[in-house]
From TrEMBL, chain A:
<dbReference type="GO" id="GO:0005886">
    <property type="term" value="C:plasma membrane"/>
</dbReference>
<keyword id="KW-0472">Membrane</keyword>
<dbReference type="InterPro" id="IPR035906">
    <property type="entry name" value="MetI-like_sf"/>
</dbReference>
<feature type="transmembrane region" description="Helical">
    <location>
        <begin position="121"/>
        <end position="142"/>
    </location>
</feature>
<feature type="transmembrane region" description="Helical">
    <location>
        <begin position="281"/>
        <end position="307"/>
    </location>
</feature>
<dbReference type="InterPro" id="IPR000515">
    <property type="entry name" value="MetI-like"/>
</dbReference>
<dbReference type="Pfam" id="PF00528">
    <property type="entry name" value="BPD_transp_1"/>
</dbReference>
<protein>
    <submittedName>
        <fullName>ABC transporter permease</fullName>
    </submittedName>
</protein>
<keyword id="KW-0813">Transport</keyword>
Automatic annotation (TrEMBL), chain B:
<dbReference type="GO" id="GO:0042597">
    <property type="term" value="C:periplasmic space"/>
</dbReference>
<dbReference type="Pfam" id="PF01547">
    <property type="entry name" value="SBP_bac_1"/>
</dbReference>
<dbReference type="InterPro" id="IPR050490">
    <property type="entry name" value="Bact_solute-bd_prot1"/>
</dbReference>
<protein>
    <submittedName>
        <fullName>ABC transporter substrate-binding protein</fullName>
    </submittedName>
</protein>
<feature type="signal peptide">
    <location>
        <begin position="1"/>
        <end position="25"/>
    </location>
</feature>
<dbReference type="InterPro" id="IPR006059">
    <property type="entry name" value="SBP"/>
</dbReference>
<keyword id="KW-0732">Signal</keyword>
<keyword id="KW-0574">Periplasm</keyword>
<comment type="similarity">
    <text>Belongs to the bacterial solute-binding protein 1 family.</text>
</comment>
């Protein structure tokens, strides 16, 4: 006896509506959280950038001034210097350094000797030490290390006979950026190392073995097989570290407050100074919007290049 | 279920506790007092608050400490949102800005109901706490700076206590003997809250200059010349150029920095400038006795600033009377028994005896002037401070010559003045 297929009973309109709404209801809590904590402040900041408003009048609406704040920020000569400092000395130099050092360290830590001696856990733990150190503590510690008179670095250099007097690393224009970059790279390098290390460990060993059988040497394996496979990970790291560093306030502010003079002033410290020293919330917000637009443009170009390649 | 006697007792106890708890909570008022002195300097204040809490079980006060640099902005964010501490410790220079934006309770009615101390006219620098003839803050502590030095080092070098700025430069050079001992130490950092601001004004004022002034009623102008400012920049930069001050101070912002406090105690620095509290901290850890002397005189006069702290009440507080009672206690001589500051009341100040090594402060207090002129100007004092510190730092680090930096100062002061007026 054959069983004839029976058609499913027709769904009630409420059920149909419920099914249609289900995905939206599922994402609604997350969307509300995003809107409240991220989109809300961003919209408020944009609105603030078009107003003249004192820090002391935050509870009230400011005077709407159109694009005046943006015109002032963009024509201020100090903004140009801050932009160069932010882009070149703070971001490009440290991102490139992190990528080079991170890749080198990850390749070293991926060496088979560590797994053979069951030391993988140890090196991964050691490399994480700077990452688990709060940035405030890291900068404070480095400031003591670099102190001209009592710092370990200067004491060591003097002990080795390399210098006669301690170098005030954070007071001289010739050394101050190097000191800040050292602090930043030391603290932020582990993220790059661990991410690349994870990617390296996901590359199947068969690929290397096949290449060796075909006569490839170690250099060719690294450049022809490993690096191309790491490219997506390196791309994500570059994007993330660039955005995080470009917007970073902590390292420069804690190390030098933008000094000596305004030599290490970056856009983030300029935004802080405008808002909380000059009390001009609108102009400070305008600096923030400009920073966001630059990063937005960077991300667009970046994704355009990545997707075109694909 | 049968109600046994012990069940009856338990039920009655629960009911009594439930009824009594809200009544007790209503009777007891909890106040938050926020202050910004570093924890190392607040033991005496905490002792005074503990004494208050012990004798006022119905008004309990909790002290909250926040970094000085963050306090003002935090208050400006909290109060419009209906929050913030009940009582706020403020720098003299903040009161008018906060009052202008209704972020402080007007104290007039509370003062009329119960006057503080020996009466309102007994307080120093009351003009800084007043806006449109209404009082928004109570001057609490007053201080000024004095020269702090190691007499043994001066004696060893055969150097007399310098009396003028020129003598100070000469003495500093003689006291820099090359084994890590420098003649003069001061915070030369570029931060908006750097202590450089204080010394710059002492130098300018004593030489007859000031940054801005009300040249006629309602008309404010930049009155310092490029030469005045460049002269001050050159003067202080010469300490680094001559090796009389360690270059590392270009990164030091606070008068309380260990490099200054510890430096004087160890003998790394022979002379510096301190407010009373910092001097006491330095003396406590010094290897040798320290003394204080007058701020050097300029071509016109000898002068320092009358700084200090005020107390304000949050307009959002639910307990203004209780907050006022606590403020009056903080202002009283009883608090100053343990609170290690100079009171901002003439009568309390007169009743105190100061140790011999603090006579520099006692002598400078009558010569001190407030920042009233700057506070009344259309420029935010913090903007002026930030600008001066930044440009002096630019000269110290070699970014700009004194002439270039002084021109930047003048141009920016003009811009700030125009913006303030508009």
């Amino acid at each position: 006896m054959s069983v004839l297929p029976t058609s499913a009973p027709a769904e009630e309109p409420a059920q149909v509506l419920g099914k249609k709404l289900e995905p939206y209801l599922l994402v609604l809590p997350a969307m509300l959280i995003l809107a409240f904590f991220f989109a809300g402040p961003a919209v408020y900041n944009i609105a603030l950038a078009f107003q003249e408003l004192s820090l002391f009048d935050l509870g009230r609406e400011g005077t709407w001034v159109g694009f005046d704040n943006f015109a002032e920020v963009l024509t201020d000569p100090s903004t140009g210097q801050s932009l160069i400092n932010t882009t070149l000395w703070l971001t490009i130099v440290t991102v490139v350094l992190r990528l080079i050092l991170g890749l080198g360290l990850a390749l070293l830590l991926n060496a088979s000797v560590f797994s053979r001696w069951k030391l993988g856990w140890l090196v991964r733990s050691l490399i994480l030490i700077p990452w688990v150190t709060p940035p405030v503590v890291a900068v404070a510690a480095w400031k003591w290390l670099l102190d001209a008179r009592y710092g370990v670095v200067n004491q060591a250099l003097m002990g080795l006979g390399l210098i006669e007097q301690g170098i005030p690393f954070l007071a001289r224009t010739s050394t101050v950026w190097g000191a800040i970059e050292t602090m930043l790279v030391w603290r932020e390098l582990p993220f790059v190392v661990i991410t690349i290390l994870a990617a390296l460990q996901s590359i199947p060993s068969e690929l290397r073995e096949a290449a060796r059988i075909d006569g490839a040497n170690e250099f060719q394996i690294q450049t022809r097989i490993v690096l191309p496979l790491l490219k997506p990970v390196l791309a994500v790291i570059t994007l993330l570290t660039t955005i995080w560093t470009f917007n970073n306030f902590v390292y420069v502010w804690l190390a030098t407050r933008g000094g000596p003079g305004d030599y290490t002033q970056v856009l983030a410290t300029q935004m802080y100074t405008t808002s909380f020293v000059d009390y001009r919330m609108g102009a400070g917000a305008a600096v923030g919007v400009v920073m966001s637009l630059i990063m937005f443009a960077f991300a667009l170009i970046y994704f355009f290049v990545i997707f075109r390649e694909k | 279920m049968k109600m046994t006697p012990w069940r009856h007792a338990a039920l009655m106890t629960t009911c009594l506790v439930a009824l009594a708890t809200p009544a007790y909570a209503q009777d007891q008022v909890s106040l938050v007092f926020r202050q910004f002195d570093p924890p190392t300097e607040t033991a005496g204040l905490q002792e005074a608050i503990n004494a208050w809490n012990a004798s006022n079980p119905n008004i309990q006060v909790r002290m909250e400490t926040m970094a000085g640099g963050d306090t003002l902005a935090q208050l400006a964010r909290e109060v419009p949102a209906g929050a913030g501490p009940d009582i706020q410790h403020m720098a003299f220079v903040w009161t008018r800005d906060l009052a202008r934006s209704n972020l402080l309770l007007e104290l007039g009615p509370l003062i009329e109901a119960e006057a503080p101390g020996a009466g309102i006219d007994d307080f120093l620098a009351l003009e800084l706490a007043t806006l449109d003839d209404k009082i928004y803050g109570m001057p609490w502590s007053a201080d000024t700076f004095a020269m702090a030095y190691r007499p043994d080092l001066l004696e060893a070098a055969g150097v007399a206590l310098p009396d003028t700025w020129e003598e100070l430069a000469t003495a500093a050079e003689a006291l820099s003997v090359g084994n890590g001992q420098f003649g003069l130490c001061f915070p030369a950092g570029s931060s908006p809250d750097s202590g450089m601001w204080t010394l710059v004004n002492y130098y300018l004022w004593s030489n007859g200059a000031t940054l801005v002034d009300e040249t006629s009623p309602g008309t404010w102008e930049v009155v310092a010349t490029a030469e005045d400012i460049a002269g001050a920049m050159t003067y202080f930069n010469n300490f680094f150029a001559s090796g009389s001050a360690p270059e590392s101070l270009i990164t030091v912002n606070s008068w309380g920095d260990p490099e200054l406090i510890g430096g004087l105690g160890r003998g790394d620095c022979a002379i510096t400038f301190f407010p009373p509290q910092t001097f006491r901290a330095a003396q406590a850890q010094s290897e040798m006795p320290l003394l204080t002397g007058l701020i050097p005189a300029g071509s016109e006069k000898r002068i320092s600033h009358l700084g200090g702290r005020a107390l304000g009440i949050n307009p959002n507080t639910k307990h203004p009377e209780e907050a006022w009672a606590f403020v009056r206690y903080l202002l009283s001589p009883e608090t100053f028994k343990t609170y290690n500051q100079y009171p901002a009341q003439n009568s309390v100040l007169d009743a105190l005896d100061f140790p011999e090594n603090e006579q520099g402060f006692v002598q400078m207090l009558p010569l001190a002037q407030t920042f009233e002129r700057y506070i009344s100007s259309p420029i935010a004092v913090s903007s002026m401070t930030g600008l001066i510190n930044r440009e002096f730092g630019a000269v110290f680090s070699g970014q700009r010559s004194p002439e270039e930096a002084s021109q930047v100062v003048l141009d920016e002061l003009q811009t700030l003045l125009q913006r303030g007026k508009s």
